Amino acid sequence: MNLLLENIAKHVSLSNEEQERVLAFTETQHYKAKTILLKEGQVCTHSFFVLKGILRSYNIDENGVEHVVSFACPGWWIADMYSFLSQRPGQLYIEVNEDAEVLILSKENQEKLYLEVPKMERFFRILIENSLVANQQRLIDNMSFTAEARYDKFTKKYAELVHCLPQKQIASYIGVTPEFFSKMKARLLKK
Amino acid sequence: MNLLLENIAKHVSLSNEEQERVLAFTETQHYKAKTILLKEGQVCTHSFFVLKGILRSYNIDENGVEHVVSFACPGWWIADMYSFLSQRPGQLYIEVNEDAEVLILSKENQEKLYLEVPKMERFFRILIENSLVANQQRLIDNMSFTAEARYDKFTKKYAELVHCLPQKQIASYIGVTPEFFSKMKARLLKK
DNA sequence: GGAAACACTTAACCTAGATTAAGAAGTGGT
DNA sequence: ACCACTTCTTAATCTAGGTTAAGTGTTTCC
Question: In chain A, what are the domains?
Fold first, then answer.
């Protein structure tokens, strides 16, 4: 059974024919860990739907420090949304964390899809809505909570992921340095 | 000329009849400064489109500290997106900053609108997309930049707004205390 | 299989920004 | 006009988290 169709079915119901149209517009690809699918300064012409493995997006600030924007495991989409939507050069990197199998949807094909299967417009609207809500929550959390509380939230929200991710990436996601993260974990263990 | 229709026209083109349908689903209201339109714990059943004045949304953390999530001036929408989309109790307050005239769209009417004027689904998708992009940028900025750089970005992005907002709200938006904000501004003046 | 590169830890020291407190300057309501 | 209330500022002190540096595994890859 196809993971993408399963996910779509959670939000809109497509006929068999529509399902086939959707799949016809996507392409499967396999990537090794550490493959970089998008670099800062490039236009994000495709978005990726993860079937297997883990991807992440991040930017690198003017001091060379990496900030993880998102992780994507199976069932999740990932892209530089700014760049993908505007078709302008973006600031994000997208990199394969663990050997991955992904479905690729080009911007072009997405536009065609909206025309041929209008229900997909609703589907993507809902995805973006959820993404906005999650993002806004993260903003609020970053402003309201200490690093410790953010880490706690993270381990609960991404319980399966935590064990597959290097610590420095978790540290980066919650917004602290690897050194402080290490110190914090040691402190938590004593309790 | 209607500000809402102007805004819609920037993204999708509606027939006169469709325009009338849209307006029929909204309702105009006037509010005095300091009116609270939504409180934490309530379900956000309406979203607001600002015609005149300024609104803001914020949450209050467990220490009683206010964190401004967004400002809305004429031409902008504001709502607790989590609550509005899920129709569950939210954590945001929405308050009138300056005497305001707003268009109100209920969740119910929005759903009807999607059915009667399907182009509006595209319109709102685009709004949400833009909102997501802006939000993600703010997250990255908060992780990458010092308070000073964030303030600088803020004054450029909201140049007209800066003069109408109390400093503590700007401080809250960029994520510092009013005291530190004050110190920082004094420091900037010396340069 | 060995060197280089990377991941993680620990510890000493440092700093951006928080906290507390107190005064000055608006602002609004009656 | 006046009192109450909130906003803004300044300054002393404090702390969460950053920086630097050094040491110990662990991968990776010729």
Answer: 3-117 (2.60.120.10)
